[in-house]
Design goal:
α1 packs parallel to α12 and α5 runs parallel beside α8. Helix content is 69%, strand content 0%. By secondary structure, it is mostly helical. It is globular. The longest helix is centred in the N-terminal third of the chain and has 24 residues.
């Protein structure tokens, strides 16, 4: 379980690159960017499965429900997220969106064989507080009635990703290579949304094309494969709480590349999110010593 959890955590590291790659991708509209990224992820998945000797066609034994969950999770989340940020201020929409790690931690208590303990919830709440400080620039946000539609869509985005992550665990027998086909479907749906809703703006130079490629290889592509494996076979409470590291690492990367600045709220958030992740992972970090056998004289 520890290995699977660490593999799942690598998705969080990849998601931390999303803001950086997005800022380098130029004026490419969101759904077109998703279509490119999911297409790259599909190609990577096909190459990976062919090298391992796996069949390229999706398995006949995969339940229809797994298809629905996979496609709805990957495409549905991005559809709701982009709709939310178009109909509400980005700061507030992001805050609502980042409810999904907490929802994963709380929702895991409803799953068979999972146990929710106080340190899982406490760690997730610390992460949420830290994320609020980062996303809102130290607490500068205000929810206004005129954006209630966008806020509601943001809630749907959070629920969609949390539900996808939790329900995927019920399909642990479905191989991770199926994510290839979920990405293929998401690419087509994203392209359809782009044609219907956006004006086409292609990457203008090599840097922007490399940023688009990087998104498909990692935050909007490769991350989905390792996340699928992690939530199916790892400690889902730890992964949920640790997910709050994504906005923190993303912000730190922007600072390193000169796109952002280090502030006191970010420093406090660093302590809160790191401490929350360690608290949620207490069972993995500090394992109880086995009790010595009782000797009967």
């Amino acid at each position: 379980m520890v290995r699977a959890t660490l593999i799942g955590f690598s998705a969080i590291l990849m998601w931390s690159l999303l803001a950086l790659f997005s800022s380098l991708s130029g004026a490419v509209p969101p759904f077109l960017l998703c279509a490119f990224s999911f297409a790259v992820a599909t190609l990577v998945g096909l190459v990976a499965t062919s090298r391992r000797g796996k069949p390229r066609a999706p398995g006949a034994k995969v339940p229809l429900a797994a298809w629905v969950v996979g496609i709805a999770g990957l495409f549905g989340y991005h559809f709701f997220y982009f709709t939310a940020v178009r109909n509400a201020p980005v700061i507030e929409a992001n805050l609502i969106n980042y409810l999904w790690p907490l929802l994963i931690v709380l929702g895991s208590s409803l799953m068979p064989g999972e146990g929710l303990r106080w340190h899982h919830v406490a760690g997730a709440l610390l992460g949420l507080i830290g994320t609020v400080l980062i996303v809102s620039d130290g607490g500068r946000f205000a929810f206004e009635a005129e954006y209630v539609f966008g806020y509601g869509i943001g809630v749907l985005a959070a629920i969609t990703w949390a539900s996808y992550s939790l329900v995927s665990r019920r399909f642990s027998q479905v191989p991770t290579r199926m994510v290839t086909w979920y990405c293929a479907a998401a690419a087509l749906l994203s392209l359809a949304c782009h044609i219907a809703l956006e004006e086409t703006v292609m990457p203008a130079n090599t840097v922007q094309w490399l940023a688009v490629l990087g998104m498909g290889l990692m935050p909007v592509g490769g991350a989905f494969f390792v996340w699928d494996y992690g939530v199916k076979h790892g400690n889902i409470q730890v992964l949920g709480a640790a997910s709050y590291a994504a906005p923190l690492l993303s912000t730190l990367l922007l600072i390193v590349f000169g796109i952002g600045a280090l502030t006191l709220p970010i420093a406090i958030a660093c302590v809160l999110i790191t401490g929350g992740a360690m608290l949620a992972s207490k069972d993995m970090i500090i394992r109880p010593r086995p009790k010595p056998p009782i000797t009967v004289v």
